[in-house]
Design brief:
Number of helices: 4
Structural class: alpha/beta
Bound molecules: zinc ion
Largest sheet: 5 strands, mixed
Distance between the termini: 33 Å
Amino acid sequence: MTDVVPCPSCGVRNRVPAAATGMPRCASCHTDLPWLVEATDSDFDTVSDSRLPVLVDLWAPWCGPCRMVGPAVERSSQEFAGRLKVVKVNVDQAPGVSARLGVQGVPTLLLLRQGQVVARQVGALPESHLMSWIKASLDSAAA
Ligand SMILES: [Zn+2]
């Protein structure tokens, strides 16, 4: 799976893979690119295997609060470009991942570092709180 992402700095359109060993950078100006991908049971392990911390958004199409928090989660991939990989998981398509991560309800947001859950947020939250939660989780994970 490959997405085309316009560089936030120079506008050049870049191909960004769902899974990679490094982190995506603009081919033209080398700015870190937002990394936002989707995963299901079949590819979650590959997609979430990242040197970057991974924000996992477990959501469902029938869940109103998920639709509220979804756009903020997508913006977080831009806000934290180069520091964070964002993986959206539709729980209806990923019952195995949901069970393994102990998801009781949606939305559930998890911050993974090297496959380990280092922070967990259950339920929707305002965008400003989401951003500060991610920042605090990244800062503590780096320590
Ligand atoms: Zn660029």
